[in-house]
């Protein structure tokens, strides 16, 4: 079961039209704050302890409430685990035919994975208990009770179908609002760790303008299995499952690579910035399959997968003779990973950004020491640190950017707005921007080797651009001797060093000719920001010992000649006598503004490839740039 392109598809093209779901449900935590029909936020305050559906309009209510009330979902126990799966399955049952000839294999044209899931240690109990709860609810709606002799085969099969095919519906901020199940046009698209397509959701209330929705888009993929061989009808015959829903979270698939006619179209089911072992573990636990895509099966590992696990290890006295150095690296990696995961989990649950910053920077800067057994030369220690491309380092940079941003906001909220407190908060904002820029630069380096990382690159460039423009627009420059009225205008819509701003100014982001030239645009962009970053990087990261070990947030070639990242004292102290000169600050601020604008515009170009010209993210960034410039 797979979907293949029925024609050549260029990079950044829609592959499917907007697809309505066959069935869907909000997660419990959003039932009181979002419309159960279209998933849009409700205009009235959340209702505490509310468990039933709420709607944003009469149109949504008339479309959804008859299905909700007929499905028996209101008779489910309030404490039922994964109740969104059960609600989705109960609603889907309403659209099924009275007889299902391929119940154990296919239902509604979708694979149920019934035999695999009901015999799986991870899923068997969950499927059985959920099916019993569904069957009991359906009986209760009729005023009956479930008898032990009653079979739950239908409920098990449909719940297996939901577990196998449903996807998490995310809003613009990345929050998972609920789940939705789509017809084979989407559900037959397989996973790859090096996909050539991605998908986005369209969430909007009735009669609202939907970002990125082009009803004229055609379905440009076809199933590669036949009805004769598998007893599965073609995708077009299953659009009738959407007739019960006039609204709901729609989904669209879009190409992120050039796809040849007949080539399989794949999306990703997991985080592509995780190393192979973690991706495989997630896919098996959540989807019960082992990925055999080209990225997972190539030997030796791809550059990206090697980099995501890279540890920098060094010790002048550590002897590797007769020892497996990888064993010590693995030991250090496990302990470092465990410590970082605990720190990030504590930050997300407790919310202590200062403690989080200290702990993460301590392990990033100091690493972990592995002590070797005594030998003729005495004891020796191996120092292990995360390579900047290591997936744990990338996750730490993302967390630190957020933590420093929160610290800055909290500091101003709890201290009087004296010059000293504003400068202190500005310092935290600087360091936050430094981590955002380092994260974008490191991810871009990986993206150049694995273009399917484009979705991550979009968000990181956007965050870096916003952080830098926030710094450039701060009133604190006044305290440094630079009048706030002297906001630099060197960039505007033109740049003398690259064509990026011309692409933005034309208001036709990535037209056909520019898509062909995308690699050159990307290369010119990186060369431009790389030439500008030395003009402000030292200022941006001043006071953060870990970031001060990086000479450049974009150029990591120097790491190839270092067994361990060492602090370059002369590099850091250079320009220290210039810090109080208005001319130096003006130059630094000008280049922060320039690079920030470039980061955002480059993010727009990448967002256009992933989500389209009028997507929410593309429109948001365009408006941000427009408002900041004017």
UniProtKB/TrEMBL annotation:
It comes from the Eukaryota. Coiled coil: none annotated. Residues 113-270 form the SET domain. It comes from Gossypium stocksii. This is SET domain-containing protein. InterPro entries: SET_dom, SET_dom_sf.
């Amino acid at each position: 079961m797979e979907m293949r392109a029925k024609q050549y598809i260029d990079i950044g093209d829609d592959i499917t039209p907007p697809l309505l779901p066959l069935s869907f449900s909000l997660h419990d935590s959003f039932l009181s704050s979002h419309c159960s029909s279209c998933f849009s936020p409700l205009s009235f305050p959340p209702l505490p302890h509310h468990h039933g559906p709420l709607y944003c309009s009469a149109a949504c209510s008339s479309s959804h409430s008859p299905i909700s009330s007929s499905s028996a979902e209101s008779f489910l126990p309030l404490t039922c685990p994964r109740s969104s799966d059960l609600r989705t399955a109960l609603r889907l049952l309403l659209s099924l035919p009275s007889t299902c000839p391929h119940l154990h294999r296919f239902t509604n044209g979708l694979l149920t994975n019934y035999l695999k899931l009901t015999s799986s240690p991870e899923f068997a109990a969950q499927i059985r208990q959920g099916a019993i709860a569904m069957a009991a609810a359906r009986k209760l709606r009729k005023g009956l009770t479930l008898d032990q002799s009653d079979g739950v085969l239908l409920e098990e099969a449909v719940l297996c179908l939901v577990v196998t095919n449903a996807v998490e519906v995310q809003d613009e901020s990345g929050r998972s609002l609920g789940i939705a199940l789509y017809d084979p046009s989407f559900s037959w698209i397989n996973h790859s760790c090096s996909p050539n397509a991605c998908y986005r959701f369209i969430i909007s209330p009735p009669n609202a303008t939907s970002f990125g929705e082009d009803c004229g888009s055609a379905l440009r993929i076809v199933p590669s299995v036949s009805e004769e061989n598998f007893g599965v009808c073609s995708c077009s015959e299953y659009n009738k499952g959407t007739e019960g829903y006039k609204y709901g979270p729609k989904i669209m698939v879009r190409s992120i690579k050039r796809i040849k006619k007949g080539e399989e179209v794949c999306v990703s089911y997991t985080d592509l910035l995780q190393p192979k072992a973690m991706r495989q573990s997630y896919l098996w636990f959540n989807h019960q399959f082992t990925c055999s895509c080209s990225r997972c099966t190539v030997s030796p590992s791809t550059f990206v997968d090697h980099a995501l696990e890279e540890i920098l290890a060094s010790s002048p006295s550590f002897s590797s003779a007769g020892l497996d150095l990888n064993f010590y690296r693995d030991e250090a990696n496990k302990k470092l990973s465990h410590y970082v995961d605990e720190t990030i989990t504590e930050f997300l649950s407790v919310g202590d950004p200062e403690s989080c910053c200290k702990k993460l920077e301590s392990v990033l800067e100091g690493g972990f020491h592995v002590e070797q057994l005594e030998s003729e030369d005495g004891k020796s220690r191996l120092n292990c640190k995360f390579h900047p491309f290591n997936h744990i380092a990338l996750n730490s940079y993302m967390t630190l950017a957020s933590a420093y941003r929160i610290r800055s906001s909290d500091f101003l909220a709890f201290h009087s707005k004296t010059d000293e407190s504003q400068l202190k908060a500005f310092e935290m904002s600087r360091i936050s921007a430094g981590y955002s820029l380092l994260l974008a630069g490191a991810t871009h380096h990986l993206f150049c080797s694995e273009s399917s990382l484009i979705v991550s690159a979009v968000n990181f460039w956007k965050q870096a651009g916003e952080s830098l423009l926030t710094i450039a627009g701060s009133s604190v420059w006044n305290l440094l001797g630079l009048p706030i009225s002297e906001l630099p205008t060197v960039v505007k819509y033109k740049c003398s060093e690259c064509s990026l701003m011309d692409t933005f100014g034309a208001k036709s982001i990535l037209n056909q000719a520019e898509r062909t030239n995308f690699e050159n645009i990307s290369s010119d962009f990186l060369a431009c920001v790389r030439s500008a970053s030395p003009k402000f990087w030292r200022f941006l990261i001043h006071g953060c010992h870990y970031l001060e070990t990086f000479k450049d947030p974009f150029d990591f070639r120097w790491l190839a000649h270092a067994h361990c990242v060492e602090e370059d004292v002369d590099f850091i102290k250079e320009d220290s006598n210039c810090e109080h000169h208005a001319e130096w600050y003006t130059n630094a601020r000008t280049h922060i503004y320039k690079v920030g604008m470039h980061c955002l515009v480059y993010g727009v170009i990448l967002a256009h490839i992933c989500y389209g010209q009028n997507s929410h993210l593309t429109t948001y960034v365009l408006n941000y740039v427009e408002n900041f410039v004017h």
